[in-house]
Amino acid sequence: MRVIGGEFRSRRLKAPPGDSVRPTPDRLREALFNILAPRIEGSVFLDAYAGCGSVGIEAISRGALRAIFLEKSRPALRCLEQNIQSLDIGARCEVHAGNAAPVITRFEAGIVFLDPPYPREIEYERCLEALGDAPRPLIIVQHASKFTTHLRETYGRIRRVRILSQGDNSLSFYEPR
Q1: CA angle 129-148-30, nearest 5°?
Q2: 57 near 83, Cβ under 8 Å?
Q3: Which end of the chain is less congested by CB atoms within 10 angstroms, N or C?
Q4: Nearest CA-CA partner of 38 in 104, 158, 137
């Protein structure tokens, strides 16, 4: 796995062994950041269920002011901390260990990226309902393409404005309504 663009382009990132973490595919991450290009510069980016941090690190590489990472897996946290250290971006990162759903609204961020483990469907609902009560300017949810119909169009004060699908993966974009 590597950083695709920006300041740290082509730098390699560590990921924990096995399939406990499902990194966002390079092609999908590239499409995401092409869409985010006008909004990423100077933003605060929250990467919930961060895994090894590839999406939040990509945000920093492309101009985000700061990234907040939420992750509960110990092996993933070790890799995330090693990736932050190897790129020397610790001053621009905040790492919080634990489950994202109960704390997601405690952090102010202009862009929130949610990528819960696909088998944990309840995590989508918990996070989106919390964010629907306390909207952020942009919320992006990565999910299995077949799961698109399970996500509601609206949660509280946010609504889905776009879906980007690439093979088995999709991104749903939510904004305040």
Answers
A1: 95
A2: yes
A3: C
A4: 137
SS3 state of residue 34:
helix
State the CATH number of the domain containing residue 81.
3.40.50.150
pTM greater than 0.90 (yes/no): yes
Residue 77 structure tokens: 């946290």
Chain-centroid distance, C-alpha 64:
13
Residue 1 lies in a domain: no
Q: Is the pLDDT of residue 18 over 90?
A: no
125-160 pLDDT per residue, tens: 999 999 999 999 999 999 999 887 889 999 999 999
Choose between 19 and 23: higher pLDDT.
23
Q: Which domain holds residue 107?
A: 6-176
Q: How far apart are CA 8 and CA 56, in angstroms?
A: 12
CA distances from 15 to 109, 113, 163, 173 (A): 25, 19, 27, 26
46-86 confidence digits (pLDDT tens): 999 999 999 999 999 999 999 999 999 999 999 999 999 99
